[in-house]
Amino acid sequence: MKETTLKQIATELGISITTVSKALKNYPDVSESTKKAVKDLAIALHYTPNSFAVNLRTKESKTIGLILPTVLHDFFSKVIDGILEEAEKRNYLVIILQSNEKYELEKKQIDLLLSKRVDGILLSLSNETGEFHHLKTIFEHNTPLVLFDKIAKIVNCSKVSINDKKAAYDAVTYLIKKGYKKIAHFRGSYMPQNSIDRFLGYKKALEDHDINYDSSLVFVCDNNTDFEDGYENARKAIAEQPEIDAIFAVTDLVAIGAIKYFNERGIKIPQQIAIFGFSNWFMSSLITPKLSTIDQPGFEIGRTAAAILFDEIYSKKNNLPIVFQSIELETSIIERQST
Amino acid sequence: MKETTLKQIATELGISITTVSKALKNYPDVSESTKKAVKDLAIALHYTPNSFAVNLRTKESKTIGLILPTVLHDFFSKVIDGILEEAEKRNYLVIILQSNEKYELEKKQIDLLLSKRVDGILLSLSNETGEFHHLKTIFEHNTPLVLFDKIAKIVNCSKVSINDKKAAYDAVTYLIKKGYKKIAHFRGSYMPQNSIDRFLGYKKALEDHDINYDSSLVFVCDNNTDFEDGYENARKAIAEQPEIDAIFAVTDLVAIGAIKYFNERGIKIPQQIAIFGFSNWFMSSLITPKLSTIDQPGFEIGRTAAAILFDEIYSKKNNLPIVFQSIELETSIIERQST
């Protein structure tokens, strides 16, 4: 079947297109019987108003854009779920794009969303993104933007994240109070703010408990394959610094990589070495030993970021002032067998 | 900054809107110097052609819709990744929606996508979906549809899946050849085709190897929480049928739930009971014991479904005939410690 147009309905009923259009919009100058006839026929013919034409009139696309570093991650699945729940409530659609952790692709995806005239953008920055000129384009288009999870503090917009520094500080303080003395850190790469903050939290916790920070106990995971980074750094750490008695890993997947290495070598967790993760990935409670970790509320991060974005879209539409918000959601320590 | 319009550019340069429009489209009757002036100003003012107006002209939205039962699943993350890769190549955008395994929500999401005039729809059916009248609406709109993973054989459109019956048959035959005699099946709910087919493959493998099918060895997982279903059915299976020596589970997550129960009870895998999963979820190689399973190529399913959809969109646009395809991608047995 071809698309039903107003003209078809008009022709079938022998009335003008204007009357059909008015009937569908419930104008008072069209009789009830005509309205009924038009609406019945519209339903029978599966007429749907041309949404592009509607969009042209209202200048709204009722669509938002979401750019993630990757969809292949339990945490981001939860974030998507939270965003879709909020969008669903408001009858907004979500266009999803990946940056694959690449700056150039992130830039391209932003341009694509802007050319589609989305009403707002939700963005978690790629690990490569170190400068923010490409975000300026979003502001110049007067399009609301909310950064979440991997944010940049210097960008002037709303942000939703956790307090990574505090969460890492809590994790390392917990390890110190458990009696661990030589705590290594498997850190993330040097670019994203959350990786920097988790490292700073680690360092601060050591300093506040009179333990000297030793840079040779810090191992970088920068191959974007967390699991293998964890496995490889576990091998390196034990070879280079055999007296390490605990590891604070930047993600659960890094921690699980390390657990796999130690399990294979018969190194006992937590008796010989304790492992602490970050994000409370679903699998962290299913592996052996179960992983102690920081609970990072992915669903809530997605939900909150979307809610703020929709508020800003509403404010913009109604010419209300927009006040940027920086929300830090609570995290908590989950103690399991690995520590 | 407000949106830049052709009028603004025309006013600033003191030329007509028609000339601006022609200059941007590289018409030969506009001088090179005017073209350059217009283009430079368009760039400086961040002018982007109004994509809704473009859409009205071309009747294409360059957007496809994707409806998943849930985003909270490793398999569907891979599917999304495959779809986004194909869309990216063609500069198409993907609107993502969830049905939350509910028929009514699936119906609503389809209507929403049709009202947005997407160029095509990719759909994996919800577990609740038992009748397909809501898909008729898609055909009546003349919108290409490709079903993937959870498909319905009776619907007349292109489909991408695996041969679930054959894969299950292979898995159970493998267990029989390993010497297991009392093989239970933790099956999925009664609705989705893949759950039915995996059950039929299990039954056929038993019959072909002269093992009587015994319905009391089949346990249903229908709470949509695979992990807990697996855990709970493991408890039930051992209590009701203690002589069971192997379990073929409908998904890896069901299998992992069962593993957790047996690990907690000190029941040795595979010595006392073997476990076989389905889908080769990332974590299946990281748990203890590592899970034997069927490799289900999620990325490839997504990629293939999207490629077929884009072919059909192209054919429709160019008035070429559309021949529906039913693709079954290859699966393979992954043997690990649990069997």
What features would you describe in this structure?
Chains A, B: Keywords: DNA-binding, Transcription, Transcription regulation. Chains A, B: It comes from Flavobacterium xinjiangense. Chains A, B: GO terms for molecular function: DNA-binding transcription factor activity; transcription cis-regulatory region binding. Chains A, B: This is Transcriptional regulator, LacI family. Chains A, B: Pfam families: LacI (PF00356), Peripla_BP_1 (PF00532). The structure is a homodimer of 339-residue chains. Chain A has 339 residues and is of the alpha/beta class. Chain A has three domains: 6-49, 434 Repressor (Amino-terminal Domain) (Orthogonal Bundle), CATH 1.10.260; 61-161 and 299-331, Rossmann fold (3-Layer(aba) Sandwich), CATH 3.40.50; 164-295, Response regulator (Rossmann fold), CATH 3.40.50. Chain A is 45% helix and 15% strand. Chain A is built from twelve helices and twelve strands. Chain A has helices at 6-13, 17-24, 32-44, 51-58, 74-89, 103-115, 133-140, 164-177, 193-208, 226-240, 252-265, 298-317; strands at 63-68, 93-98, 120-123, 145-148, 158-162, 183-187, 218-220, 246-249, 274-276, 293-295, 326-329, 332-334. In chain A, the strands form three sheets. Chain A has a six-stranded parallel sheet, with helices on both faces. Chain A has a four-stranded parallel sheet with strand order 7-6-8-9, sandwiched between helices. A two-stranded antiparallel ribbon of chain A has the order 10-12. Chains A and B meet through helix 4, helix 5, strand 2, helix 6 and helix 7 of A and helix 4, helix 5, strand 2, helix 6 and helix 7 of B.
